[in-house]
Design goal:
Blueprint (H helix, E strand, L loop, with lengths): L6 E5 L6 H12 L3 E3 H10 L3 H10 L7 H12 L8 E4 L5 H14 L5 E6 L2 H9 L1 E4 L5 E3 L15 E2 L6 H23 L4 E5 L4 H16 L2
Parallel strand pairs: 1-3, 1-4, 2-3, 4-8
Antiparallel strand pairs: 5-6, 5-7
Helix pairs in contact: 1-8, 2-3, 4-5, 6-7
The protein binds adenosine monophosphate.
Length: about 220
């Protein structure tokens, strides 16, 4: 496997640290990072019709309908060269999305190579999501105590809290994850594609775990 051509899905519940790992993996593997949540937030900021439509679902913690989501993500993916790698973050989140993704990839180019599943217990997710801030410049997700200054430690940008990181939306998102997204894991497990990583502990340790697992896989 050549760096730059690896095709990964980063999978896990909301708050598992997918965004944090994505920034690290994107540089380590030299592949573009495609985040469905970031794509929706971009449309929301630009107030496009798609962004306005999606915001109704996002603010309630619900999934945006499959047809809209698939279109926006595949549009980015199928623009890539058939042998280019990528890192998908937040997509697929329903079994239907996963099936369509495989179908489109195998007709246009090669399918995904592995699914990196970041496993974190629910109680830890609730704590992380309520302390999560996002940098308005570099989009890095950071954990902060409420009394700390809302400045990004990576680039100095201003930090904000996502509108869907409130208690009601968080509970809904975790329910939706259990109900609609866990079947995606079963779909990929049946194809023997899943690498499970313990997503608890300091970020540095999780980075190292991810890197170790990927190195082992790449050198097999
Ligand atoms: P995220 O940043 O990945 O947590 O996504 C934020 C929100 O965008 C989610 O709570 C959903 O409302 C929506 N979203 C992101 N990805 C998807 C997807 N694959 N399917 C449906 N909705 C999505």
């Amino acid at each position: 496997m050549i760096m730059g051509s690896v095709r990964l899905v980063l999978f896990g519940p909301p708050g598992a640290g997918k965004g944090t790992q994505a920034l690290y993996l994107r540089d380590y593997l030299n592949v573009p990072h495609i985040s469905s949540g970031d794509l929706f937030r971009y449309h929301l900021q630009q107030k496009t019709p798609l962004g306005i439509q999606a915001s109704e679902y996002i603010n309630k913690g619900l999934l945006v309908p499959d047809n809209v989501t698939i279109e926006i993500v595949l549009d980015k993916l199928l623009d890539l060269h058939p042998t280019d790698g990528f890192l998908l973050d937040g997509f697929p989140r329903t079994e239907y999305q996963a099936r369509i993704l495989s179908e489109k990839l195998t007709t246009k180019s090669k399918d995904i190579d592995k699914v990196i599943y970041i496993d974190v217990p629910i109680t830890e997710l609730v704590r992380r999501l309520s302390n999560r801030y996002i940098c308005s410049d570099c989009q890095a997700p950071l954990q902060l105590n409420p009394s700390e200054p809302k400045i990004c430690s990576l680039c100095g940008g201003e930090l904000y809290q996502r509108s869907d990181d409130n208690t009601d939306s968080v509970n809904t998102r975790l329910d939706v994850y259990q109900r609609e997204t866990i079947p995606v894991l079963d779909f990929y497990r049946s194809q023997d594609l899943v690498i499970t990583i313990d997503g608890t502990g300091p970020i540095d340790c999780i980075n190292k775990r991810v890197q170790r697992h990927i190195e082992t896989w790449l050198t097999q």
